[in-house]
Write a structure and sequence with these properties.
Length: 177
């Protein structure tokens, strides 16, 4: 049995997510207050160019005070499907569109305090498009052999959870097909 929601109070509402304090009664009868981030959802994509290369971004993330390696991703716009979001973000972030799309699955990156789900896609048959970064996006686009990108995970160079998940999901899907 899921928990019973007794009360919910919005503590903060930003441009992307809401922070709520929810009073719930768990299935074991215990009542607790939990802080929960409500997120609209996102899509992330593993863009494959020719020669088994993946297009990665090295993006500044202020919370970490550093640049990190990532696959392109973005938050849903209102009434946008996961695939529509993926197609839009691919063009905006790396300046490519894709002719072929494969859904790889979904991940829940931080289920202890957020309802965010990220829909993962493989994007291939890339075609140049006009990059259109948001004003707060600072990133560089890099083409890396897929095997090298996976090695970057094992070496600790890639630490972003959606990127690790996406690269492993794509590698598995490509090996199985």
């Amino acid at each position: 049995m899921p928990a019973k929601l007794n009360n919910s109070v919005t503590l903060y509402e930003g441009r992307i997510f809401k922070l709520l304090r929810e009073n719930i009664t768990l299935s074991n009868g215990i009542t607790v207050d939990l802080d929960v981030i409500h997120h609209p959802g996102a899509s992330a994509m593993v863009p494959l160019s020719g020669n088994d290369n993946v297009v990665l971004i090295k993006q500044y993330r202020h919370a970490l005070r550093d640049f990190i390696w990532e696959i392109p991703a973005g938050t849903f716009d209102p009434n946008e499907t996961p695939l529509e979001c993926a197609k839009r973000e691919l063009i905006e972030e790396i300046g490519f569109s894709a002719n072929t799309w494969q859904k790889l699955g979904e991940i829940t990156p931080v289920p202890g305090y957020s309802n965010e789900r990220i829909h993962m896609f493989l994007a291939s048959d890339l075609v140049p498009a006009r990059q259109d970064l948001d004003k707060d996006e600072v990133l560089d686009v890099h083409e890396v052999p897929l095997d090298e990108a996976v090695q970057m995970i094992h070496e600790g160079t890639i630490q972003d959870s959606k990127t690790i998940s996406g690269l492993f999901m794509a590698t598995h899907w490509l090996r199985e097909r």
